[in-house]
Design goal:
This protein is 59% helix and 0% strand. By secondary structure, it is mainly α. It has a domain at 9-96. The N and C termini lie far apart (72 Å). Its main location: membrane. Keywords: Membrane, Protein transport, Translocation, Transmembrane, Transmembrane helix, Transport. It is a single-pass membrane protein.
């Protein structure tokens, strides 16, 4: 739990004894125990409430399958890309069109430049500046 080993917990306890002192330590230990019990009761209450609301499907649900730690984005993308397109016709053949040496960008640029030269220079008003 949280990567805590027995040695680490023992070290935290020794530091707590020195910081809090022997007179306050039992009080804080009791508060910590109450907090842990309340958290456990809240978790069990949420689990029971979920079981009541979901009904019998709650026991049939595979919780390990829904664990977010198991998801690997690379694997998910790889599987999604590997799936075949369900709308693709099986008998359709792929035909390649001849590549356009100009490209769509150059066509648009040439059309835009031609329109600018046809309109002439922009009007200039010496009094506006």
């Amino acid at each position: 739990m949280f990567g805590l080993t027995f040695e680490k917990i023992l070290l935290i306890g020794i530091i707590a004894v020195f910081l809090l002192g022997p007179d306050k330590l039992p009080h804080y230990a009791a508060q910590l125990g109450r907090l842990v019990r309340q958290l456990r009761d809240m978790a069990n209450g949420a689990k029971d409430r979920m079981r009541d609301e979901m009904g019998p499907e709650f026991d049939d649900l595979d919780w390990k399958k829904l664990d977010p730690r198991q998801y690997d984005p690379r694997r998910i993308i790889r599987e999604a890309l590997a799936d075949e397109d369900p709308f693709k016709e099986q008998s359709a053949t792929i035909s390649r069109a001849e590549p356009n040496p100009e490209g769509a960008y150059l066509k648009r640029k040439r059309a835009r430049d031609a329109a600018r030269t046809a309109l002439g220079p922009a009007p200039f008003d010496s009094e506006s500046t």
